[in-house]
Amino acid sequence: MRRHWLFFMSWTAVFAVGLAGGIAAGELIRDQNGSGLSWLAVETGGSQETVNKSYQLVLARTYLCGVKDEEIKQVPHEQLAQALVAYSGWEIIASDPAKLILYKRENDLAPSCKANGYFGLSPDGVLTLFNGLPAEQQVVQTFYRIDTAKMETKLTKDKLESLKRGIRVRDLAEYNSVLSTYSEFQTDEEES
Questions:
Q1: How far apart are CA 36 and CA 132, in angstroms?
Q2: 2-105: which CATH topology?
Q3: Which residue from 64, 68, 125, 168 has the fewest beta carbons nearer than 10 Å?
Q4: Do 13 and 93 touch, CB atoms closer than 8 A?
């Protein structure tokens, strides 16, 4: 894993430095209309019009609670190298002359899960993370089927009712605590 990370960081640095150097050189070498960036359009397969516009930087994230989101930023071509340095922990998953897609797996809950996440049981007995109370049935993530008979013999009535109503999670510690507490009631049988 560390070797993969070092490889990725080295290539990201080479790409950023090369792009920054190329842009700086392009500024020095002016073409006939004075833009100085026509070399970039030719090298990346884009047009002069594409080079003069901003570059679309797409930041895609996946959170532990299963939520995926994207943020789109417009970055002037001459500031792309600086932007890549700011997102050095992100993986480049796609690029073209006008767009670069970066990906990061967040080791945290999504802001929406922190704001309105509840653990509960689905109607078929699966431990589930909901957006809102379980009664609203807005499923975010499912985990495993619960042996409710076993759970009823080992847990207090308050804990059972709490799970049925919904257990609020506001951070990663609470999320992991609920998963840990109810994992002992996970059924071994697979649905066919």
A1: 54
A2: Ubiquitin-like (UB roll) (3.10.20)
A3: 68
A4: no
Secondary structure (3-state) at 169: strand
3-class SS of residue 23: helix
Q: Is CATH 3.30.70.1740 correct for 111-183? A: yes
Give the predicted TM-score (pTM) of the model. 0.64
Residue 166: other Cβ atoms inside 10 A: 19
Residue with tokens 């709490």: 162
The pLDDT tens digits along the chain (192 residues) read: 444 444 444 444 444 444 444 433 333 333 333 433 333 343 444 444 544 578 899 999 999 999 999 999 999 988 888 988 999 999 999 988 889 999 999 999 999 999 999 999 998 889 999 999 998 889 999 999 998 888 888 888 888 888 889 999 999 999 999 999 899 999 876 544
Domain boundaries, the chain: 2-105, 111-183
**Topology alike, domains 2-105 and 111-183:** no
